[in-house]
Amino acid sequence: MSFSDLGLSAAVLRAVTEQGYETPTPIQAQAIPAVLRGKDLMAGAQTGTGKTAAFTLPLLDRLIEGAQGGPRRVRALILTPTRELAAQVQDSVRVYGSQLPLRSAAVFGGVGIQPQISALRRGVDILVATPGRLQDHLDRGTVDLSKVEIMVLDEADRMLDMGFLPAIERILRSVPERRQTLLFSATFAGPIRQLAGRFLREPEMIEVARANATTEAVTQAVYLVDHARKRELLSYLIGSRNWRQVLVFTRTKRGADRLAMSLAKDGLSAAAIHGDKSQGARTRALKDFKQQSVRVLVATDVAARGLDIDRLPYVVNYELPDTPEDYVHRIGRTGRAGERGEALSLVCADESEQFRAIQRLISIPLPVSTVDGFEPESSFDPNRAPGKPAAKRGAGNNKVVARRRPSQDSQHPRGERSRPQTTGKPGSPRARQRRA
Ligand code: AMP
User: What is the 55 CA–ligand 1 centroid distance (Å)?
Assistant: First the structure.
């Protein structure tokens, strides 16, 4: 299957070739012909599957086909959950539409509204927006959605998670009923189905990977470690394995800031990205990370959602997310579009429940091990049925022996010790053997 089999126009095909894409990804192969036929779409696809091009390429073609001259009106509206994703989608629209006489704009919060008003007044064909800011424009009467022909809900599950349902409903009431609607979502959970049931017309269903399945291109591993030593272990891994670009997830914004500062003290260039940072700071951090002038980007789930960083090789879960689906989203930052990636989780005794929830969701056993010198004092049995108390290693004479400070220059100073899936009770021969 090649792009030229999908029915795209020559101008769009040229843009695809310029990007160096040779074959359509599975979501593109299925979605592009359906969108060109004018069908509504309900597509299950995560970031990294090529979904942005899957809706942008045929959307551009349909706009060109239906162009009628006259003043520019918003004819395609793309809603995304975050500012970063909105900016990235607009970048894709620009790149793929570089040969076409179409104008686009992105409107999102955290930046001044006036330049957006001016851009809208000058006229755009394609508007990429976050729901909150778009609602603001609707309230002010600075945007007219009455000529929208195609509407895309990108990462719809995330938009609902973020509480955007009322804003989305308001926006959907402002666009014509006769339109084409494309809904992309990583999961097809109940609320997404309800949304689709209300706003889509006989949608074509496309699912490229089983919802919640983790991508095979990502090697996953779990290191058990005490909470207090996570930062030290992370610095050690980055330094000893010579990782040049790593995205690290924390659960809280403060945690992200604190970790970025501690890593910087360890001599690792790091930046934090989360919802409390100004738009300027977030854009700068992302740019520095992409250009590899910053080695570690510490992010919260919301901020990282949809980030598109080419060939990101490493993702670290510094803390496991509360929602197991977020684990899948996080590790989806790596192993994209044909590249391999590695996702490591640093897990402490307090995180046994989150660990088990993830394990249940992805239904493949995660390899659990420890790193020499960082064996936890307090741990849990990854195979234990939920409800039983976690194993606690005794203090005092059970201290881990190898407790050297890691050197960042050393290449392979310590091995990673693979741990049997059954860890045994404390005091059992196996546990004693491990402590020795
Ligand atoms: P997305 O899932 O839209 O975030 O895309 C993930 C990455 O895949 C982006 O960096 C795209 O540039 C890239 N990509 C999209 N389509 C293709 C393709 N057909 N061949 C190679 N790379 C692609």
Answer: 12
